[in-house]
Design brief:
Alkaline Phosphatase, subunit A; Arylsulfatase, C-terminal domain; 3 domains; 9-stranded mixed beta sheet; 4-stranded antiparallel beta sheet; 17 strands; 28% helix; 16% strand; globular; disordered N terminus; disordered C terminus; binds calcium ion
Length: 514
């Protein structure tokens, strides 16, 4: 079935549902389940046990996956914090929700899934990192940090506090007013969220959004009790840690990627300089390997904090008997590189930053321990939650409800994933691309002609090390993917202008890039 037909089928199913407000005491309370939606920050799937990690244990996330469905290919439409969060809330691509760039102000008057749930009678609450600048709207309660939030003793803002406008250029304003919590950020934010749940007097269904700050940087101080974790352990390196980028886009900007390459990462400048001082002849590869060991341990310590606090939430839901009629979603705003291609950070359309974790538990609907291998998109979460709550999905939402997949009635909702990352003036180029189950085509319109295109065979080359774009043996895949990309740009009504994607210029581009 094509993606369009699948979308139609999902919409048709929704249209037969009863539309109206929800209230307590309805005969079938499973029609309006509670929702706990956990959105962490920069969480790489490679760091989670149930996604194959062998270096650390993540018992809470593994338990959640064992009781629900794990998505192997949950993909972001725009791998950067602020735009990704706006896409999750709205179910729309960046050009539709107005947040294309980092630290761009979210227009809170627009439609979001919490707003639609609140209008339908849900109690809505938000805790943790917000990162959309504007004052949160459509939450009965919120307790959020502005900007990134501090690792310890964070200042939070609630509805009773004056919301002082701020911007990345005026960061002092982000810390005026509010209430200071005492303790490690993720622990005390979870405390606040659990207190809200425990103290609720309402008998309405609820939608709780919990947005942990970790494993986003800063990596130090480590969470309490994890300062020494893995200290004496040598962590295995990813196969592509020492990637030289030959024949691929990063080759064109390799010396400028301080926001992506571990070798150039500002966080480890002191370590880098110390190693150079101790051994003036140290190679770039040796530096990368040494920095990787520090980085991955710092990162894993934060992952442990995430897992511990997810465990606290799951324990409370069970103790309170809320778990039976509560959907639990665990995801992150986007994926993250853990040394693959020598990278930390996100933004690229390569697999590590394109994939975020997605686990959904809903007893009675989702088969325990199930795994889905199709491509789902963060813009699917809003329609999915509305659908599961028994509400109609507005036509302007661009994602698909995953309910048919969760119910075991369908394997996929799309055949191709559209990606658009916007240039930020921070060294990385704009990226527009398409991923299918087997291939990926990425266009970098701002790079020199020699590095504007990448084509990968994901089955034979899952690490994306061999660019097949200029290889005549792959002419058909290249042209098919270009046609697919043109179709997605039309379908999602992205106004992006890509002169080198015009159908008539395929052969010329091939020559230029070969
Ligand atoms: Ca993020």
């Amino acid at each position: 079935m094509t993606a369009k037909l699948l979308r139609f089928a999902a919409c048709a199913a929704v249209s037969t549902m009863t539309v109206g407000t929800v209230c307590a005491g309805q005969e079938d309370d499973t029609k309006h389940p509670n929702i706990v939606f956990i959105l962490s920050d920069d969480h790489a799937i490679q760091s989670i046990g149930c996604y194959g990690n062998k270096d650390i244990q993540t018992p809470a996330l593994d338990r959640l996956a064992g009781e629900g469905m794990r998505f192997e290919h949950a993909l972001t439409p725009n791998s950067f914090c602020t735009p990704a969060r706006a896409a999750v809330l709205t179910g729309k691509y960046s050009h539709k929700n107005g947040v294309t760039h980092l630290n761009q102000r979210f227009d809170g008057t627009q439609q979001t899934f919490p707003k639609l749930l609140q209008s339908a009678g849900y109690d809505t609450a938000l805790f943790g990192k917000w990162h959309l600048l504007s004052q949160p709207t459509s939450f009965d309660h919120y307790c959020v940090m502005k900007m990134q939030g501090m690792p310890e003793n964070p200042i939070v803002f609630e509805p009773q506090h004056e919301w002082i406008e701020w911007s990345p250029q005026d960061q002092k304003s982000a810390f005026q007013g509010g209430r200071k919590l005492k303790g490690y950020n993720n622990d005390v934010i979870t405390d606040e969220a659990l207190a809200w749940l425990k103290n609720r007097k309402s008998d309405k269904p609820f939608c709780l959004l919990l947005h942990p700050k970790p494993p986003h940087a800063p990596y130090r101080p480590a969470p309490p009790s994890y300062g020494e974790f893995l200290k004496e352990v040598q962590i295995p390196e990813p196969e592509t840690l020492l990637d030289d980028y030959k024949g691929r886009a990063p080759e064109a900007i390799a010396d400028k990627m301080s926001n992506n390459r571990l070798l150039l990462c500002p966080t480890y400048e002191n370590l880098r300089e110390q190693l150079k001082k101790e051994n003036p002849k140290i190679s770039k590869d040796e530096l990368t390997r040494a920095i990787y060991q520090e980085y991955i341990k710092d990162y894993y310590r934060l992952v442990k904090s995430v897992d511990d606090n997810v465990g606290r939430v799951l324990d409370y839901l069970k103790e309170s008997d809320l778990d039976k009629n509560t959907i639990v979603v665990y995801t992150s705003d986007q994926g993250f590189a853990l040394g693959e291609h020598g990278f930390y950070n996100k933004m690229w359309m390569y697999e590590p930053s394109l994939h975020q974790p997605l686990i959904i538990r809903y007893p009675g609907l989702v088969a325990p321990g199930s795994v889905n291998s199709s491509m789902v998109n963060h813009i699917d979460l809003a329609p999915t939650l509305l659908d599961l709550a028994g509400l109609p999905v507005p036509d302007d939402i661009q994602g698909h409800s995953l309910k048919p997949i969760l119910a075991g009635k369908s394997d996929k909702v799309r055949d191709a994933h559209y990606y658009h990352f916007y240039e930020h003036g921070k060294g990385l180029p704009e990226m527009v691309g398409v991923r299918t189950a087997t291939h990926k085509l990425i266009h970098y319109p701002g790079l020199p002609a020699s590095h504007q295109w990448e084509l990968f065979d994901l089955e034979k080359d899952p690490e994306e090390m061999t660019n097949l774009y200029g290889d005549p043996a792959h002419d058909k895949e290249r042209e098919d993917l270009k046609e697919c990309l043109r179709g997605l740009i039309r379908e999602f009504e992205d106004p992006v202008e890509l002169p080198n994607l015009k159908a008539t210029t395929g052969k010329e581009e091939s020559k230029a890039s070969s």
